[in-house]
Amino acid sequence: MAMLFPFISFFPNSHYASAISGKGKVGLNSSNFDKVKSLDDAVNLFRQMVRMKPLPSLVHFSKLFKNMISMKYYTAVLSLFREMQKLGIPISEFILSGVINSYCLMHRSDYAFSVLPIYLKSGIPFDVVTFTTLIRGIFAENKIKDAVELFKKLVREKICEPNEVMYATVMNGLSKRGHTEKTLSLLRLMEQGNTKPDIYIYNIVIDSLCKDGNCDVAITLLNEMKQRGIPPNIVTYNSIIDGLCRIGQWEKVKILLSEMVNLNIYPNVRSFNILTDGLCKEGKVEDAEEVMKHMVEKGVEPNIITYSAIMDGYCLRGQLDRARRIFDSLVDKGIEPNSFSYSILINGYCKKRKLAEAMQLFCEISQKGSKPDIVTYNTILHGMFEIGRTGDAKQLFIEMVSTGPVPNLCTHHTLLDGYFKYGLVEEAMSLFNKLVGKKENIDIISYNIIINGLCKNGELDKAHAIFEKLYSMGLLPDAITYNTMITGFCLKGLLDEAKDMLRKMEGNNCLPNNVTYNVIMRGYLRCMKINEMVTFMKEMTGRGFSFDATTAKLLVNSISENPSVLDMIPELHAESKK
Question: Exposure of 331 by Cβ count < 10 A (0-12 exposed, 13-18 middle, 19+ buried)?
Fold first, then answer.
């Protein structure tokens, strides 16, 4: 049950009135708050403050709470707040906002709502900051529907007028969870309302579009923005350039870079790093090194991320010696290798199944007086699963939980994927249920791993049941989710169900891709349903998709085993007669 705070009544006297107004001489200044470095310091200062006569202003109490929140002492903030209530110290909107924020950062937005009656009882009006904090907290718990519903209620019932920050919070929450269309719709709504979008809002939408691969729409939005008199900044261009690099649209990248310079917006280190990383991921490491030389010529100093991208490029090409030479040269350049650069090289060794060398690097981090961070642990875990060392992976995870960094979503994804890969379904589902129970921020990627793992381990019904719950949880299935379910149905010979899933995918505005059509084509071929396949092939080619290598090979094998198949496919039969 949610804990409910009692209502507070004000009984102001001269002692407490000074706390509200800030009048009265108090022995506090900024140095008192600067000295707060630990929980004990914070509690001791609070004790000192409540003994002062007259009391310090509520601004000072708010500042103390703010410092404690920045140090993640959320529970202590709540405890000291209750003590303020017991002592009859009046409450301000800033203190209540701090309490709500603490609950939200603890992923307990349900308790945060129980603070709202205190506003009413104390005669403190709700403000936009209060509800923005609540919305952010609800998104953090992945309760997307609840967050959106609260936002709609605030607007519909005119409880408070959303400002740019609230809009940005909602749009950020939606975009980070794959709801790009809703984010764009909210932007359009905002353009028609009183609170107009600023550059920060446009950047959220543009970044979301680019991460979805919709760079053309993002560029259109960039042009609209300029027409509205809102000049783009380096963040805008970096988002679009990053999106274009991901899909290999290098000509458009050149046009944008030229446009930037014409607007006196010059590429920064992040811009160059995006270019370097994009080229390296395509195997064009030499081109990336040329970009790095150009970067130096322009007076932009390469950083650890730049060199790490080059190292990663060589690792992707299997040239570990060259990657290692760059790694070893960093110290000579006055750049200290970080966990990210270590992780890239460790990952390179793991992919070459050189776990001994990877572990040597892993241990080197500690020998140099540092501790491996979450990225490094995740990389080693992934490497262990890749070569089948599940026991070592489990042991490393136990070590990580007891002495290392706190496992993150990527850690759990690695474990879930690894468990499913080796048929450890019970362990995978046990971990997943723990994450759900702890209200961890589980995203659609997590569910894709679960659905895929269950399908591959013969648990199609369980996978389908989880899939059907996604919408009610406010999670939007993506192309991977649908393709995974379609693959599961096809492998079981349930082709009607696979086709229904395709139609559902289209109905929910998730566009099928080449993978979708090829999976269903292979399903028809395996079941030798050639007539249905021919009909479906017409739809497939009509949408601009074609057979991939796996489907083509399966078709050739089917024709070899049963030549009459060729006669049943008019297009192929006509081609063979030429």
Answer: exposed
Q: Would you say how long the chain is, in residues?
A: 578
Output the CA–CA distances (angstroms, integers) from residue 339 to 209, 324, 360, in the order listed.
30, 15, 14
Q: How far apart are the first and last CA of the chain?
A: 76
Q: Which residue has the tokens 């049941």?
A: 465
pLDDT-derived band at 300 (thresholds 50, 70, 90) equals very high
The mean per-residue pLDDT over the stretch 93-99 comes to 93
Measured from the Cβ of residue 300, the count of other Cβ atoms closer than 10 Å reads 19
Over 50: is that where the pLDDT of 19 sits? no
Q: Cβ distance 108 to 97 under 8 Å?
A: no
Structure tokens at 480: 């991977």
Spatial CA neighbour of 393 closest among 431, 448, 433, 445: 431
Query: How far apart, in whole angstroms, are the C-alpha atoms of residue 113 and residue 143?
Result: 14
Torsion angle, alpha carbons of 200, 202, 205, 207, to 10: -70
Residue 14: its pLDDT value, please?
A: 37
pLDDT of residue 554: 87
Per-residue pLDDT of 146-202, as tens digits, reads: 999 999 999 999 888 899 999 999 999 999 988 999 999 999 999 998 899 999 999
Tokens of 53: 């006569």
Residue of higher predicted confidence among 440 and 491: 491
Give the residue among 74, 149, 127, 80 at the shortest CA–CA distance from 104.
Answer: 74
Distances (CA, A) of 55 to 60, 67, 153: 10, 19, 39
Note the Cα 239 to chain centre separation in Å. 15
User: pLDDT band at residue 27, thresholds of 50, 70 and 90?
Assistant: low
Q: State the average pLDDT for the chain.
A: 88
- Position 3 scores a pLDDT of 32
- Containing 534, the helix (H) or strand (E) segment is helix 530-542
Local structure of residue 370 (DSSP, 8 states): -
Give the per-residue pLDDT at 34.
77
Phi, psi of 92 (to 5 degrees): -110, 170
C-alpha–C-alpha distance, residues 259 and 273, integer Å: 19
The pLDDT score that the predictor gives to residue 442 is 81
* 319 three-class SS: coil
**Rounded CA gap, 455 and 485, in Å?**
8
CB 138, CB 146: distance < 8 Å: yes
What radius of gyration do the chain's Cα atoms show? Answer: 29
Structural contact between residues 164 and 200, judged by C-beta atoms closer than 8 angstroms: yes
- For residues 445 and 481, the answer to whether their CB atoms sit within 8 Å is no
Look at residue 476 and give its three-state secondary structure: coil
- CA atoms within 13 Å, Cβ hemisphere of 150: 23
Omega before 232 within 30 of 0, i.e. cis: no
